[in-house]
Amino acid sequence: MTSVLAAAVYKRYASPAGWVEALRGVSFRLDAGSLTCVVGPSGSGKSTLLAIVGGLDAPTAGEVYVGTMALHGMSAARRARFRAARIGLVFQSSNLVPVLTAAENVALPLVLGTLTRAERDHRVAAVLDELGVRELADRRPGELSGGQQQRVGIARALVHRPTLVLADEPTAHLDSRTGAQVFEVLRATSRTCRTTFIVATHDRGVEAHADVRIALRDGTCVEAADAA
Predict the structure, then answer these.
(1) What is the largest distance, in Å, between two alpha-carbon atoms of the chain?
(2) Domain count, the chain
(3) Whole-model pTM?
(4) What's 198's domain CATH number?
(5) Which residue of 60, 153, 159, 163 has the lowest C-beta tally within 10 Å?
């Protein structure tokens, strides 16, 4: 079970036109097992926030805690190790390895672990089944539709049973029915496994069923409250 705390987080980038303030003093606290949606227009800082909470990037200033771990004080190498062990990532594009099958892509986070081959195969099959794509296990990404690729990408994020999952527009490439089914899997995982989810989204269906809603505008948090 993992809570998340962000305290006065700033992120500044250098650009040819000068400094860009991607995040400006964002603060929030999320309970373990909660499902949070992060909303806001393009350029508001949603993806930057997910990258910092996920340890893909470091804040310019401020503090980020995932459970008791202070990500803002870690080196890039240590953040990478922590991310591999504890965090699942779902991207706007599935980022699947084209030469591997769907099952092999999903198994990637488990390769360096301690599971036996049989245990690994069982876990991969189970998560593919949950997402409704088990029959596609032996196909390569080029043989899958965009929606199928995204579901395989989500399976890969969940297979090592992370305590925190960060999803950047996970239903963007899915039709409304499939998107709702995928969201129900995320919702059920947050409830049964006490996995904490943070989802950047424009999907009103996700917003409607989230526990917490964080709204960003121009890098500033304009709302962080229970979605109800």
Answers:
(1) 54
(2) 1
(3) 0.87
(4) 3.40.50.300
(5) 60
